[in-house]
Automatic annotation (TrEMBL):
Residues 10-127, 169-283 form the VOC domain. It comes from Saliterribacillus persicus. Pfam families: Glyoxalase (PF00903). One of its GO terms (molecular function) is dioxygenase activity. This is Catechol 2,3-dioxygenase. PROSITE patterns: GLYOXALASE_I_1 (PS00934), VOC (PS51819). PANTHER family: CATECHOL-2,3-DIOXYGENASE. Keywords: Dioxygenase, Metal-binding, Oxidoreductase. The keyword Signal does not apply. It comes from the Bacteria. SUPFAM superfamilies: Glyoxalase/Bleomycin resistance protein/Dihydroxybiphenyl dioxygenase. The keyword Secreted does not apply.
Length: 283
């Protein structure tokens, strides 16, 4: 998809910490529809196409339950290729009676919300065609209207759910941050994203290449929210994929000039936003 490939910078992978690896694997395989690509005693890499890691989960040795009112993950968002795929997974959720936390028609997309056994938020969505999106004064119109579930289910036309389609993507990530202006400076001035929508003074939606959003930032856990403990369930890190080495190098240089941390780790570069969210910068 054009918004998740060159020349766009996009979210490619999310890494989570969980309390019980086997319990989480059961959820992500049987409820969400991932396949295991690699597994060790304490970690697992999950895929939709059998080669690309979209989600990595790990069980730290001294892990503690998810801490409330902290910075970190609000939800990560799985982007399905077609509306009919959203209909199939919705039918699957309803058939197994898995508790959903919400659903919405955002006009740019249609979304279903739920959480994993540890309380990590998940959005499963499909996009409308970009030609159908409305832009006003440089911002995309993106409300939270009621979802027409019956119309989406009608897209299934007898098809059955068989897990995530191979061309499923990590669509975006939504983060709790401690302060919006510091976060804006880091993500917009530092990483080079563009603000495409604002939600009053509570949230920012940012993207590259005029997507409706690759990253969202909110202060719903309170201004000045504390960082979670390193061993807490929740977000370990997420990965930004750059189109080429030159853009990554320029971005790292800019972050350093702005006094944001950048360090090398396992042939990648890593930075940390002002709210403690760790980001892997890859090409």
């Amino acid at each position: 998809m054009v918004f998740h490939s060159k020349p766009t910078t996009f979210v490619a992978q999310v890494n989570l910490k969980v309390l019980d690896l086997e319990r989480s694997l059961t959820f992500y395989k049987e409820i969400i529809g991932f396949n295991i690509l690699e597994q060790t005693e304490h970690t697992a890499k999950l895929t939709a196409d059998g080669k690309t890691v979209l989600l990595e989960i790990e069980q730290p040795v001294d892990v503690i339950p998810k801490q409330q009112r902290t910075t970190g993950l609000y939800h990560f968002a799985i982007l399905l290729p077609h509306r009919s795929d959203l209909g199939k997974i919705l039918k699957h959720f309803l058939q197994i009676k898995y508790p959903l936390q919400g659903a919405a028609d955002h006009l740019v997309s249609e979304a279903i919300y739920l959480a994993d056994p540890d309380g990590n938020g998940i959005e499963v969505y499909s996009d409308r065609e970009a030609s159908e999106w409305t832009w006003e004064n440089g911002e995309v119109v993106m409300p939270s209207d009621p979802l027409d579930a019956e119309d989406i289910l009608a897209e299934v036309q007898g098809g059955s759910w068989k897990g995530l389609p191979s061309d499923t993507l990590m669509g975006h990530i939504h983060l709790h941050v401690s302060e919006l202006e510091k976060s804006r400076k880091f993500y917009v001035e530092g990483l080079g994203f563009e603000i495409v929508s604002k939600y009053e003074n509570h949230a920012l939606f940012i993207s590259d290449g005029r997507y409706h959003h690759h990253i969202a930032l909110n202060i719903w856990n309170g201004v000045g929210a504390a960082l979670p403990a390193d061993n807490s369930v929740g977000l370990e890190s997420f990965t930004l994929m750059f189109p080429d080495e030159e853009k990554r190098r320029e971005t790292c240089k800019k972050l350093k000039q702005m006094s944001f941390p950048v360090y090398e780790n396992n042939n990648s570069f890593v930075t940390v936003d002002p709210s403690g969210n760790k980001i892997n910068l890859k090409v």
